[in-house]
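dude i think i finally got it to work??
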Amino acid sequence: MELDIAMAYALAAYLMWGLFPAFFPLLEPASPLEIIGHRIIWTAVFMSIVLTVSSKFRGNSSWRELRTATPKTWLWLCLAGALVAINWLIYVIAVNSGHVADAALGYFINPLVSVALGMIFLSERLYRLQLAAIGLATLAVVVLTILGGQPPLLALGLAFSFGFYGLVKKRVGLSAIASLTAETLILLPAAVGYIVYLELNNQGAFAQRRLLLMSAGVVTALPLLAFGAAAKRIDLSTIGMLQYMTPTMQMLWAVFVVSEHIPPARWAAFGIIWLAVALYIFDLLRRRTAH
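look at this
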């Protein structure tokens, strides 16, 4: 039952993330840094409200989790906040500069990073078919890199920043709500300072996109909450492989909505990746049925 709930959380997170390419272009003419500043501010506001409300329903203080957190936990939270901010910035730059396919590639690579981190740092075990799936996906990524003629920097930045974010979330001994609240509160002073600077110098876009920029807090928080809840319940490698749902949606958006050109060789590599995903999920379902 708990596994079913965890899988539902993961699928909900990746479905919402898959729709992000439709949202962030609406925030222009705000620059990527301004968008990230507003994402941090309004996510912090939204999460503070959620944390306060949840405290009343649970009959205890969720804020107490933060007040009693150890210095080591706060160091992990600072690292998580920095990693997620870097990931947000790279993603917004990619999507708003017409590189949705590169963003999708980043999230195709990310599960490989998650699986590797799970094996190296968490001693997670992979079975034969799962290793074959990872091998296929790795081959596809190598082909994509070679065909591109240079390392896909945007894609690699997205993959490694979010991969390490997922690993750090496994180390934070707080609820998903408390952890995300803390991460955004840590980033809040820098975000507020930057937005105030922009507005004082008449360089901000808040007046033009007020409601959309404020809604970025809810849009940001909901999938991260779902991801945090899933990350605490299932293996990092499984979370990583399920994540292929998001870049598949983003690829469809890139091709059918914004009409990005995808070379045939890249389509072939993506096909190999989708085969790897199907193989991995088949093995998961087969082993679950056997038990």
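The two ends are 14 Å apart (CA to CA).
im so relieved honestly
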